[in-house]
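Q: My collaborator sent me two sequences in one message, no labels, and asked for predicted structures for both. Can we handle them in order? The first one she listed is below.
A: Yes, handling them in the order given. First sequence, followed by its structure tokens:
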Amino acid sequence: VGVVRKITGATEPLISDVGTIRGDFTIDSYELADTDGRAVRNLIHASSSVEDAEKEIKLWFKEEEIINYRLINEEILYDVNLDKILE
């Protein structure tokens, strides 16, 4: 959750850091949204906690839409013996 929130950027797109999803791909701001009488246009949502993420996943996705998969880079970085790569 922490890493996702970091790459997502601040909720207010205008103050999101360069290199974040909101900072790089959003030109909206709270001020502009208020002027237009609308909600801020948000490109991405990031849960604030693991508990919230679990609730939100259940709300938006069916169980069969959740897929478990393994990234090879995770095995290379974290499997000290590299014994799971060839499985």
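Q: And the one she listed second?
A: Here it is, processed independently of the first:
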Amino acid sequence: LNFKKVQKLILLAPALNYMPPGIYPEKRLDIPVYIYHGNQDQVVPHGPVHDIADKIFSNLIWHLVDDDHSLHKTFFNLNWNLLLS
């Protein structure tokens, strides 16, 4: 990542558990990383994703929401103006 250009990451149900361990960054990323993950996600389990995210992001803002993988209930209710500011 180019830290001069990237101020934060917003990840929606990221499949971090499919990344080979060898490609994890050597140093934890310290920019804010917002993750929204559904507790009913049947595609990407939230437990392993949270564990991996804790290892690679030092400024993790984790949101486990009552939703599925597509975040149908959550996506349009997110405060995008605040998240993208």
